[in-house]
Specification:
- The structure is a homodimer of 480-residue chains.
- With 480 residues, chain A is of the alpha/beta class.
- Chain A folds into four domains: 27 residues, no CATH class; 183 residues, FAD/NAD(P)-binding domain (3-Layer(bba) Sandwich); 148 residues, D-Amino Acid Oxidase, Chain A, domain 2, CATH 3.30.9; 79 residues, no CATH class.
- Chain A has 16 helices and 16 strands.
- In chain A, the strands form three sheets. In chain A, strands 3, 4, 7, 8, 9, 10, 11 and 12 form an eight-stranded mixed sheet that branches. A six-stranded mixed sheet of chain A has the order 5-2-1-6-15-14.
- In chain A, helix 2 packs parallel to helix 5, helix 10 packs across helix 13 and helix 11 packs parallel to helix 14.
- The first copy, chain A, is globular.
Chain lengths: 480, 480
């Protein structure tokens, strides 16, 4: 069959093809090895790199830290990996800290302070796990190298990216270092704050007894002062407790983000103990004051703040190729709900899947990536911002919901497990109507009516012990 | 366990609850019967209504047409239902025209005109079907009534919606009648045109022989003049041929949208026959000129134009409830690629699923609806607009792709079946790089290179007969 096409078009096109071919056009990569450059070796960069190596993609990671350096660094952060992230780690072949030994199984909640806080417990469907990133990140970096990943050890700056882009089909940026925040503009619609909403004091401490027999996070709120998350965390000297102390600016606890441990360790610890006794007594009660200190030494503490920010998911570089923002650089969440690393991992594996599935890395490519990653990523961001603003004075709609969570173990379990699925949590918190409807949908029609809310006490045993986990039930669920 | 909440909050909240309850708050519907109002009884409204009736939702449909009136109406449109839509009809229990008797199996393509057009054939994975909507819509309206759906026969106007909204938890609007276009603002980013891109002449004709033995659509393009789709369509007097004649404004065929059949039927038919012989000779050759006429009479023709438009997916009414745009009111596509009804059905069932799944119909509800429906709906819209603009002069990148489709049966099959999946088609057409990569991905690395493109002739038999469908192979695929 002879095909008639008007000659000028055909010729113009062929010239165009040849022109493109000499410049390695975007479509050359079909059937050839894809070449991806990743700037930043945190959870986002490593999970993406490991995923791509599983699919024979040529990956180069740029980082200024060699694996051996991590041991001597200041605490990087305190990060919970929920079961959805652990599942990804199992799939990536990097589950070096199996949850049966290193995991924890749910959340205790203590909301409010004296005379009696709202207390309850909820289970996950499967355990979460926290490992000190000074241990976690270099171990995964070694996995990446062993599996044929390339690493270039240098600090890459925003101004270097165009030169690097020539070597790759796609650049992925997942570090705040190097002024990359300037490359990816802020999305104003999703960025209501221009400053941190909490003054953070984050450390790993020894001398806090783990809860027995069931390891769990404890999540505290002291309305008007702040929140605290106590996370069983594996660090250099074993299982210790990370305290993520989130302090309301101008409140009684803000000082914890200002006083320096290094200036006078004993004074700092005494200050902290006093504040814990006042605001988070359940934690203070489990502290052996003689042993209480930073777990490994003076580098185990981090103070500062995080401005919740969403940036544009990608930019087009001057060479026509895209640079994609991943992890914290794309969406920075306050750590109050422990979502950051889970979002980074979620987004990294979706980006990896789309890099493997698609052949052209253009705007349409990013439509697929964003469509798949954004409901969870933005849901976590919006939910975290909601909690930051509504916990500050314990707004009435939030009070009512947390009261129901405390009264009904079903709700506490769902609420807790949804830390794995922040988009489902946002389905609950996105409006006052949703907060009511969510309770009703789990408890049935009658219980949800305010006039009958106390009927629900069949689920909420009277007194403190009953708010403890039902271990038999939880263990059964785990075995299933 | 006693929960201490500060009294002002609790009291304030209870008052608020009572206040809401008397106004039927959004969350009242949990566990109760949901009440949905649908304005418009086309494919979108009927598929949504039927889906909701399958799930015991209380649905009221507003339409100004009783089932018995359809028989006497002018042709409504000419609509292909692709296999994905037929599958939905089977699930809805309204597959009254099974495709083994009423369906067709693929597309013939004739692109270009004399001396020799680019010709080829591609198969669907499963048949499509076209039934005159004057038969289809009243039949489904009867199904809806039989299944407990309520219908109110009256013309609802945009200004009526707030009063209606009080009776329902959610209003869905899927009609252009009643000035609803004013309620839902146009999305400028997706609406590049302010007028129709083709002058349409659409009719159902008798006297055109169906292709034997394999029924199929024929899709024609006459660069500079327009496009035509010939669709085997079941109408009142059996299987006839719908001709969707899309005419470039100012071109040789525009007159077909202007001359009135009613003024002089013979003159109109002669004009049409002359234009078909010149621009679409393959169709003209199958016409028995003595029998050639509108299939059922002078109402079987429709002339006009469609401005491709995307409107905001929902608006908040003054009572705080949402009105959702569905079907053509949300996204109006030109019929050149036969996507409209398929998008309407796709979006309708997704909206139905979310109405059943969720309990609060707010902005978050719409985020889920839009996230699920928009890739296909907007993909079809963008692909259709791309084809309208690039077919006009048969732009070189489109020429090259269509040439490859004509040369390689694999590509023709994929291209044809993707009429079911316009988002996949848009994955191919969204950029020049994608058009190349798409061909390469289906044909393998070597064939895609321009220098070797003719290697592919093993797939493209030399001459006209070989461009006909491989019936054995296609039948085998159908049986599987």
């Amino acid at each position: 069959m002879k095909v008639i096409l008007s000659e000028p078009f055909t010729n113009g096109w062929v010239v165009n093809i040849i022109g493109l071919a000499s410049d390695e056009p975007l479509w050359r990569r079909v059937g050839l090895r894809k070449r991806i450059g990743i700037i930043g070796a945190g959870t986002a960069g490593l999970h993406l790199g490991l995923y791509l190596r599983q699919h024979d993609v040529d990956v180069t990671l740029f980082t200024d830290r060699r694996p051996a350096e991590y041991r001597g660094l200041r605490l990087l952060n305190t990060v919970a990996h929920h079961a959805v992230t652990v599942d990804r780690e199992i799939a990536l072949g990097v589950d070096h800290w199996p949850t049966d030994a290193f995991g924890y199984f749910g959340h205790y909640y203590y909301v409010g302070a004296k005379p009696e806080p709202l207390r309850c417990y909820g289970d996950y469907h499967a355990p979460s796990r926290a490992v000190d990133y000074r241990i976690y990140l270099p171990r995964l970096a070694e996995d990446f190298l062993e599996r044929g990943g390339k690493v270039e050890y240098r600090l890459v700056k925003s101004s270097d990216i165009l030169a690097l882009s020539q070597r790759f089909d796609l650049m992925v940026v997942c570090t705040g270092k190097g002024a990359f925040g300037q490359l990816f503009p802020v999305e104003p619609a999703y960025t209501p704050f221009d400053r941190p909403q909490r003054a953070l004091c984050v450390g790993i401490f020894k001398g806090i007894a783990q809860r027995e027999p069931r390891r769990a996070v404890t999540w505290y709120a002291s309305p008007g002062a702040g929140e605290m998350i106590e996370i069983p965390t594996t660090t250099f000297n074993g299982m210790q407790s990370a305290l993520v102390i989130e302090n309301i600016i101008g409140g009684d606890l803000e000082i914890l983000a200002q006083v320096r441990y290094d200036d006078d360790p004993r004074a700092f610890l005494d200050l902290l103990l006093g504040k814990l006794r006042k605001h988070y007594p359940d934690c203070a009660e489990r502290i052996d004051e003689r042993e209480f200190d930073l777990a490994n030494g003076p580098l185990d503490i981090l103070q500062g703040g995080v401005t919740p920010t969403v940036r544009k998911s990608h930019v087009k570089l001057a060479d026509g190729k895209l640079a994609v923002a991943l992890g914290d650089l794309h969406v920075t969440v306050d750590p109050v709900l422990g979502q950051g690393a889970n979002l980074a991992s979620h987004a990294a594996v979706i980006l990896g899947e789309e890099i493997v599935r698609q052949d052209v890395y253009d705007e349409r490519f990013m439509e697929h990536v964003d469509r798949r990653r954004n409901d969870r990523v933005l849901g976590a961001h919006l939910w975290t911002n909601f909690m930051l603003t509504h916990l500050e004075a314990l707004e009435p709609e939030l009070s009512l919901l947390l009261k129901k969570v405390a009264q009904h173990r079903e709700l506490a379990d769902v609420f807790t497990d949804n830390f794995n699925y922040p988009e489902r949590q946002w389905d609950c918190f996105a409006s006052v109507e949703r907060m009511h409807a969510w309770c009703e949908s789990w408890l049935g029609e009658t219980v949800g009516r305010e006039s009958r809310a106390d009927d629900g006490d069949r689920h909420a045993p009277p007194g403190h012990p009953a708010a403890e986990p039902d271990l038999g039930r939880a263990a059964g669920a785990r075995a299933g």
